[in-house]
Amino acid sequence: MSTLHLSVAGAVAELRLDNPAKLNSLTVPMLEALDAHCATLERSAEIRVVILTGAGEKAFCAGADIGAWGPMAPFDFARLWVREGHRIFDRLARLGKPTIAALNGHAFGGGLELAACCDIRVITPKAALALPEAGIGIVPGWSGTQRVARLLPEAVVKEMALFGRRIGAERALALGFVAEVAEDVGAAARAIAERAASLSPRAVEVAKYMIQAGVGEDRAALIEALGSGMIAASADRAEGVGAFAEKRKPVFSGR
User: Are 94 and 212 spatial neighbours (Cβ–Cβ below 8 Å)?
Assistant: First the structure.
């Protein structure tokens, strides 16, 4: 069954889309696996960086498998496919560890939206980006008009979504959507990952939260998380928790 596999080598984890017969198109099992793997990655203290890539050489991800959502009734399509997929993509985007998309081939529709969830992207020279949903009578549903529109100029997103045009690797580099064009995207992604893994994991995590809050990605939760992290390091927090456990009135020092 097509799915998404997690493997770990030292401090670097790799998520690999495994549906090459359908150009790594996303299925329900793949979305469920992504959701579960994100929970595992978030809780792991050993993993510091995550690489996301696809099996085969033709496509990173050609989007959502039409066979998975085509038969759905409108309400089920909106609730069980679009809304649930959006939630899972958001979970990847808000992962506390740096993420790298190694685009081993084309990233179309949901595949482009998936790549946009990562912090940095590298791409093979022959790959292209596209939002082809209008060609089959639907619209982007997993942040193509939102997150992708924050990473690419409005005119370029309209070029893809309204006119069906594809963006090549070199143009994606010039636009800043990808950081590097490489024949071996796996090696390029691993080199970036090893460098990131050598940095302070706490500093990297907090820097990611600060940047995300600045651009509006889960801002409310991140502000409360950063504030809670600061207060958790205080002597007052230790005193408050200790006093509660000992059933006495706390004496706060303001430290």
Answer: yes
pLDDT in tens, 119-177: 999 999 999 999 999 999 999 989 899 999 999 999 999 999 999 999 999 999 999 99
Catalytic residues: 113, 133
- Angstrom CA distances, 34 to 17, 85, 108, stand at 9, 10, 18
User: CB under 8 Å to 114, separation ≥6 — which residues?
Assistant: 26, 52, 61, 89, 92, 101, 107, 142
- pTM score over 0.85: yes
Q: What is the pLDDT of residues 42-101, one digit of tens each?
A: 999 999 999 999 999 899 999 998 888 888 888 888 888 888 999 999 999 999 999 999
What is the per-residue burial (b if ≥16 Cβ within 10 Å, else e) of 15-47? bbbbbbebbbbbbbebbebbbebbeebeeeeeb
Helix and strand element counts for the chain (H, E)? 12, 10
Tokens 């792991």 sit on residue: 44
Give the CA radius of gyration of the chain: 20
Which residues have a Cβ under 8 Å from the Cβ of 49 and sit 6 or more positions away? 11, 12, 13, 97, 98, 99, 100, 193, 196, 197
Q: Is the pLDDT of residue 2 over 70?
A: no
**pLDDT computed for residue 1 by the predictor:** 56
Q: Which tokens in the block code for residue 168?
A: 């090549």
